[in-house]
Structure prediction request, 350 residues.
Amino acid sequence: MNIINKSVYPASLVLWGVLTFFLLSSLSYSLENNTIGKSSDGCYVHKMDLQSESLRNNDTILRYKLNRGVYFKALPTRKVQSLSSLKKKYGEDGVKLILALSRVDEKLFRKTDTLIVPSVMANLLSFSPFPFIIEQARDIPKLILISRKLQAIAAYEHGTLVHWGPTSTGRREKPTPEGLFSMNWKAKKTTSTIDDDWVLPYYFNFNNKEGVALHQFEMPGYPASHACVRLWESDAKWFFYWGDQWVLDQEGRFVAHGTPVIVFDEFRWGKRKTWRGLLENSNSARVTQNEVDNLMEKYLPTIKERTEKRETYLADIKRKKEILKKAKEYIVVPMPLMSAKPVNTSNLSE
Prediction:
């Protein structure tokens, strides 16, 4: 038989009510300040508003949106025994994410003193510093954004993010030029004009005048190139096959631009690397909507004009090829005339 002490029950109820009130008040205060508490290792946990833009229901990028609190912690590289030990702990994809957030590659990860480790291991797209959607670019088949401040690159198809990765842009003495460019020509492998020993795999030029391109090369965690945009090999290969080259006519003359490329903002020389801000606020180190709006206002009219010219030219070429193909099907080849008289073969020599 269960016996309930009725004198204790009201007191317990009051105590429960008081505790509930304080918990709700604390949670309300934390949410208002974009913080939902601390992790076991003392790091503040921020509710990461990864992408809050209005998205269309058919945008598959939605599946990469994280809906839980995410925080980042610093992992000193001196405490990392080896890359293998890191992969054993976080897995291949986890290490790829950590290196991307830290802007280094596997070979040079010790060039940085700190690796950035997220509390949640998810697809790399989920941690994009670029917006998932650029509404103004819905009519643009392909678009590339390169942030010198964030040392990151992004690819869009009809305004939807499809890929992003870390970069190492031009060093202080030779910065990657700012502005609107286009993908021009490419080579699966080439050598640098500065040093013949520098092999540049998956080279895709986007500034023919100054010889600036996307390509694979060392990624030390800061701008280190001679104006080119260095990428991981996997990213360089991806852009190599994804991007569209310029269009030339049969005489090799320029006709239409390739995939548009926008290089923008400035690296903060002599100051803390922008992406390190994730350690204090997981909503920092991102390209803001205001920045995107400014870029679109400045460059979108030219991009649309170039895109329309390219599509019109290629459509005209396709139409001419179809006409030529149909014409060949209706060409009548005359048969050789047959002699009505039998041929006298007695006069033919052997």
Remarks:
- Confidence is low (pLDDT under 50) at residues 1-9, 23-57, 342-350.
- The domain at 37-311 is CATH 2.40.440.10 (L,D-transpeptidase catalytic domain-like).
